[in-house]
Write a structure and sequence with these properties.
The protein is α+β, with helices and mostly antiparallel strands. The chain is 27% helix and 29% strand. Among the domains are: 97 residues, 3-Layer(aba) Sandwich (Rossmann fold); 68 residues, Dna Ligase, domain 1. The strands form 5 sheets. It has an 8-stranded antiparallel sheet, with helices on both faces.
């Protein structure tokens, strides 16, 4: 098969490397010049993805275009390429709007009968400040648009004074009062996501469940980073999926969506509260799901474009993923001047099974040595699998202890809150399938557990 990857920073390097190892042809377009070193010596980079369209077309139904990004351009480009007969996996204009326009996404979810938090939509700062003065409460400040999630703020005080202060400070740093964001009522509970691959007509089963750790430091301290680690599983997921993301199938079909989609939620004794969509490949989510997907990426993508198989093979148990970062993370080289090209080293010789749990992010080859690259410091994701969250966590941390990159950082508590009680709470809420349903369809992980 032939795959053309299109993105800003080569987020899917590990996926591309896996396709190449399995004998497929891969070319990748990387828009950001600061990221051109990512995958150097590992993948073939093209300067103009449009020039490669005939190369994709020559492969017929085995030619696939993978889009990494969302925004004003990618969704429209994907829809246009589909109209020209290309097999495109990633998202769509509709998916871009679901992710970027938070108030619109909440209205869609409400229309499907899902309970939603109170939400106020704003396009100018002063009006929002007036609202907070007149309606004290605990809110979550969420900005609209691509890459805006790191600017979000989760309120701590019931009178909203911290949200008001944060919003005022952010507005003061802008050149205009015009800015797009929402204030969402804060809901307490366990944060968890549900995701699945949509082939243009229907979802491919099973769905996954995930529990993200978004802040920089252990104990959920520090900046919102996007993600520092995650616990994921394909086990016991049908009930939660059917109550949430599965309801989106008619709308996704109507609007030409084809790709992975995830719905993040808060769950508590009052119900399931949907928060936001991810309408693209999630990073590092795709890498953390990888060891649980025994079908393999090429088989999943083939099923998506041919629409003839609605089931993929998955392994039982859990995967824990740890995001290993280096400076300038959690910022970028456009804001912080940091050295890249640091060596990526390992303590002793790693087995093939261990290497399969190292998912390279911003890494390339220089003189035969793996080194850090890119603009963000997303160096790699280290995974471990196990029958329990505890076993998967132990496997992941045993392996990451053998990774060495100068100035590397990672959280030490991925999975701890779930182990301490959050997972049991989700079970008590009746949100998981009973154990009588075969776990992971009875198959084994594609990558041996460590």
């Amino acid at each position: 098969m032939r795959f053309l990857g299109i993105g800003d920073s080569c987020d899917l390097l590990d996926l591309y490397r896996g396709l190449i190892r399995d004998g497929h042809e891969v070319k990748v377009a990387i828009k950001d010049p600061l990221c051109h070193g990512t995958g150097a010596g590992m993948i073939e980079r093209t300067d103009d993805w449009r020039r490669e369209l005939n190369w994709v077309r020559e492969s017929g139904r085995d030619g696939i275009i993978l889009f990494e990004s969302i925004g004003a351009g990618p969704g429209a480009q994907q829809d246009a390429l589909r109209a020209e007969g290309f097999n495109v996996i990633g998202g769509s204009v509709y998916g871009d709007r679901l992710e970027n326009d938070r108030a619109y996404a909440q209205s869609v979810l409400a229309g499907l009968g899902l309970p939603i938090c109170r939400i106020e939509d704003f396009d100018d700062g002063p009006r929002a400040l007036e609202f907070l003065d007149g309606h004290p409460g605990r809110y979550v400040l969420k900005f609209n648009g691509q890459g805006a999630s790191r600017s979000n703020y989760v309120g701590r005080f019931d009178d909203g004074r911290d949200v008001r202060a944060v919003l005022a400070a952010k507005l003061a740093s802008l050149d205009t009062d015009k800015v797009s964001f929402v204030l969402m009522e804060h809901v307490k509970g366990v944060e968890m996501g549900v995701g699945a691959y949509f082939n243009g007509d229907d979802f491919i089963r099973p769905a996954c469940l995930d529990w993200e750790h978004k802040r920089f430091f252990a104990g959920d301290l520090g900046e919102l980073t996007g993600e520092m680690g995650t616990v994921a599983t394909y086990d016991r997921t049908n009930a939660f999926f059917d109550r949430t993301l599965a309801r989106m199938a008619p709308l996704l079909r109507k609007n030409g969506y084809c790709g992975y989609i995830n719905l993040n939620t808060i769950v508590n004794e009052d119900g399931i509260w949907p928060l936001e969509f991810t309408c693209r490949f999630g990073y590092p989510g795709f890498a953390i799901l990888d060891p649980l997907q025994t079908s393999g990426w090429a088989s999943i993508f083939r099923a998506m474009i041919r629409r003839d198989i609605l089931k993929m093979e998955t392994g039982s148990g859990f995967a824990v993923g740890i995001v290993v970062t280096t400076p300038p993370f959690p910022y970028n080289l456009k804001r912080v001047d940091e050295v890249i090209g640091l060596p990526v080293l390992f303590d002793g010789d790693l087995s093939a099974a261990e290497k399969a749990h190292l998912h390279y992010g911003e890494i390339g080859l220089a003189n035969g040595q793996s080194v850090t690259t890119g603009a963000y410091g997303w160096t790699m994701v280290v995974t471990g699998c196990g029958r329990s969250i505890e076993d998967a966590k132990s496997a992941a941390y045993n392996l990451v202890s053998r990774v060495y990159v100068p100035d590397m950082r990672y959280r030490l508590d991925i999975g701890d809150r779930l182990i301490a009680g959050d997972f049991s709470r989700v079970e008590r809420l009746g949100l998981l399938d009973p154990f009588l349903i075969p776990m992971g369809e009875g198959t084994q992980p594609a990558i041996p557990r460590l």
